[in-house]
């Protein structure tokens, strides 16, 4: 299933991850354990804006089935069941939350050497329907997605995109928000092992004539330490340090400051993930 163009959600994902992944203003601590029977247990505590929350997530694996169960501090139970290869080249994902019984969703993904298709439908009386398709190859892909609201009989969203990938770079253009926003991004890897990279992204919102341009990058200081930074034309500067303290256990320190209003308090985040 990895020979085709990928899912529509993969278009522009490399740039998005470089500019947003692991950046946080929260304090987060998580501990994971694994058993030989294929059971993974992760406990997470988060402090955000003076409020503390937490959850416990458990994952079960059996043959082509993966079951994820998460319980949060508000006693909400979220369950996701993933079936791989029930039918050839497909993945089926069922998710629901208790006590919110209207949150159920069923998604089917189909992978082909030159195309991928996904269909997701809400499991309630007035279900929303999301459909996406991508055609092409791992090097160049065209895709579109649409969301239909059966209650109002209108399209809730429609988006189109194109991506081009080379061994040392990738670029993407996405037209979203029902045609109101266009986003273009480019990622260039600075070494053959792809440990360091530079990224640029520009977003144009037509309804407000607003442009946002962001540049950033990541650099592997060594095999244990990575630093990242980003800056946009509105003066938002972010930086991140990620260090593998012990094998598989990572400490992440991140921060963000408004360079045009230095009197404002900067935002800092701390995350510790311990794994066996």
UniProtKB/TrEMBL annotation:
Keywords: Ion transport, Membrane, Porin, Transmembrane, Transmembrane beta strand, Transport. GO terms for molecular function: porin activity; voltage-gated monoatomic anion channel activity. The keyword Transport applies. One of its GO terms (cellular component) is mitochondrial outer membrane. It is found in: Membrane. It holds the Pfam family Porin_3. InterPro entries: Porin_dom_sf, Porin_Euk, Porin_Euk/Tom40. Its main location: membrane. CDD domains: Porin3_VDAC. PANTHER family: MITOCHONDRIAL OUTER MEMBRANE PROTEIN PORIN 5-RELATED, VOLTAGE-DEPENDENT ANION-SELECTIVE CHANNEL. Belongs to the eukaryotic mitochondrial porin (TC 1.B.8.1) family. This is Mitochondrial outer membrane protein porin 2. It comes from Carya illinoinensis (Pecan).
